Structure formats: C-alpha cells, structure tokens
Amino acid sequence: MKKVIKKWTLVVLTLVLVLGVAPLFGLQAQAEEFYTDPMISAGLHHTLALKSDGTVWAWGANYYGQLGDGTTSGTPGRPIPARVDNLDEVTAISAGGAYSLALKSDGTVWAWGSNRHGELGDGTQTNSTIPVQVKNLIGVTAIVAGEDRSLALKSDGTVWAWGNNFLGLLLGDDVLPGSIKNPTQVQNLVEITAIATTVDLGAAHSLAIKSDGTVWAWGSNSGGQLGDGTTISRTTAAQVNNLDKIIAVAAERGYSLALKSDGTVWTSRSNGGGQINNLTGVTAVSAGGSHYAVAVKTDGTVWAWGDSSSGQLGDGRFGKRTEPVQAKGEGGVGYLNLYVGNTRPTSPAISTESLTDKLRSTQKEVALIVVLGIALLGGIIVFVVIQGKKKNR
Questions:
Q1: 153 - beta bridge partners?
Q2: Would the pLDDT of 191 be above 90?
Q3: For residues 146 and 163, is the Cβ–Cβ distance under 8 A?
Q4: Where are the domains of the chain?
Q5: Residue 373 DSSP one-character state
Q6: How far, in Å, are 44, 206, 256 from residue 198 at the CA level?
Q7: Which of 199, 273, 312, 355 is buried most, with the most CB atoms less than 10 Å from its CB?
Q8: Which parts of the chain fold into alpha helices (H)?
Q9: Contact 151, 143 (CB under 8 A)
Q10: For residues 175 and 162, is the Cβ–Cβ distance under 8 A?
C-alpha cells in the first residue's frame, strides 16, 4: 500500500508542478514581447515610421543623417525605408526639418540628424547620423520636432524645449536668444497634456493644451496664429481666446488648428479665425506646411481645405478650397476611407492590465492549482487506505 501511495503522490506532484509553473512561463514570454501603436511622421523632406515592434524606419532626404542609418547622402535621398540603427522599444516619433526624434518606453528621448542649432539636445552642435540620447531628460510622454527646435512633454505636465531660440520665441526672455543645446523648461506652462509646433520653414510658433482643455500659444504671430486678437509675437505662452474643451492641436506657418471634444474644428489666423464650416464628427487634424489642413472623421473619411496647387487636398482638382472637400478614393473612384470595408477595425487585443496585476493574477492561479492538487492527493491517499483495509479483511 505504501508503494501505491508513493506512486500516486509522485503523479499528483508532477501534475501540480506542470500546471503551476506553465502560467509563469507564459507570463514571462508575454512580458518579453514589446508592442506599441504604429505611427508615421512627415518631416520637411523625410519620413519616419514606427512599427508595432518598437523599431523605427526612415526614408527621404539624408543630407545631415536624419535617416539614422549611420550615413549621409545628397540628392535625391533614399526612396526605400530602412531601419534606424541602435533604436528599439520606441513608443513615439517626430520628424523635423532635417533631424528626427524618438521617445522610448523608458521615457528617454533620442535624436539624430542636423544639430546646427542644438536641436539634438546632446549639449553639442555636432550632427549625428545615429541616434544620441537627449541629455538630462527623463519621464517624457510626448515629443514634437519642429524646423530646428524641439519640444518634450514630461509626465509632470511641464514642457521642455531646445534648439533655435530665435528672438526668444521658443523659451522666453529669461533665456538668451540663440542655440539652446540642452533641454530647458518653457516658462509659465504647467498641467500640459499635449503639444504642437511648426515644421515649415519660416516664423515658428508652438501650442500646448492644458488639463482644463484650454490652449496656450507662443512664438511668431505675424498671421494671428496665436489667437490672442493681435499680430504681436510672444516670448511666453498666453491663452488662446474663446477656446475650451480642446483635445488636439496642430500648428503650421501662419495658422493654428484646434479639435474640440464635440468633434468640431477651430482655427486662428489674422484673415479669419473661428469654426471650420461644414465639418463635424472629427477625430484627428493635421496642418500642412503649404497652407492646407486635413481632418479625419469618425467614419474614416478624409476631408481637407486650403491650398491645393499640388493636388494635396485629394479631391481630384487643383486650386484653393475655402471649405472642406472630401478626398477621393483610389483612381478617383468613390471616396477614401481609412477603415477597410468602411467598418471600424477591431482594436488589437492589448490588455490595459499592468504586468504587476498579471503576475498577481497568475500567482493566484498557481496557488489554486496547488491547493486543488493537495486536495486531490489527500483524496487518493484516503481512497488507497480504505481499499487496503478492505483487502486486509
């Protein structure tokens, strides 16, 4: 009888071990997989793409090493995407004038390309053909690359900037105009949730959304783009008039865009600001460098307005549009829709549960398996003992 008990004990213990340890191996494998939402960013003459595995790919102009592959090249650049060297676990990207920025999952920022005005933030003005870490900057949640200046939003709601501080329009009067080679905090900005700046060549301005939904702007104001009712440039941020409940902003030379939580789009500029007519249900906006803008609606359709001298509005015609027009589909047939089959795609099955929560859950599962195993073993022992007594009778 002892041999039988020993045999069943070994069987049950083996089952408990296998069933108990297996979830831990599954959790470890899951923890090792990195996932991020894919995104794309268009610079002045080059483009960046972020894959879901956290790698960055680049193509286009490479005069200053802005493609990050360790090389430079003249005209016409590189028309085929290639991976940026020595960069992984990236969660956000931003392509600037002739340089690039990447935000990693650990909250650090990396930069490469032109560094004429200190836009790489590494304490030098030396160009880099591979990513270098921006100095003294951690806890970052968002990044924006401009023509020659950079902005970063930290988890504490503060905004930091480096690069070209021409006339103090980036960092204010307290910071000397010129090239700022290290991240410096932007004055009078707290509780910020989103940031934007211009990429187009020329006078620059920047925007920030506060946690209360208000928009604050600073920089060049020659086109009334700061939305304060004047055309006077500002070295410190001031609140944009008559805007609240804002969830996204976009900036380009001479104008600003703001998306409200109700899906309407608003603009500020000297020749007529206010709500964009005949445009509702918007989920995203983008400002183009040549005086045009694009919006995506909840149904996946794309709408654009402004200059279309190069056909950039996508409605099949050239010329200026004062109101939004819908972008055409492939070959001019139908209309463009960002959702395949005109249906909203199912979101990736990515749990918001933290790794710590998953570990606790797995530990509970393992404990339950062990308890059940012990109970099963106890039942087997009792059964064997009873059977043994019956035989002895």
A1: 142, 159
A2: yes
A3: yes
A4: 2-32+364-392, 39-342
A5: H
A6: 10, 7, 9
A7: 199
A8: 2-32, 355-392
A9: yes
A10: no
> What kind and span of H or E run contains 287?
strand 282-288
Burial classification of residue 198, based on how many CB atoms lie within 10 Å of its CB (0-12 exposed, 13-18 middle, 19 or more buried): buried
Under 8 Å between Cβ of 94 and 57: no
What is the model's pLDDT at position 222? 85
Strongest mean pLDDT among 188-197, 303-312, 336-345: 188-197
CA 367 to chain centre: 39
> Which residues contact residue 104 at a Cβ distance below 8 angstroms, ignoring those fewer than 6 apart?
87, 89, 90, 91, 110
pLDDT of residue 11: 53
Q: Which two tokens stand for residue 344?
A: 């909203």
CATH, range 39-342: 2.130.10.30
Instruction: Write out pLDDT tens, residues 366-381.
Output: 566 656 666 666 666 6
- Share the mean pLDDT of the chain: 81
Residues, the chain, total? 393
In the structure encoding, which two tokens stand for residue 69, read together?
């592959």
Radius of gyration from C-alpha coordinates of the chain:
28
Percent of the chain scored above 70 by pLDDT? 74
Angle, helix 2-32 to helix 355-392, in steps of 10 degrees: 170
Cα 97 to Cα 114: distance, rounded to the nearest angstrom: 8
State which of 95-99, 105-109, 249-253, 270-274 shows the largest mean pLDDT: 105-109
Distance CA 217, CA 240 (A): 7
Confidence (pLDDT) at 289: 64
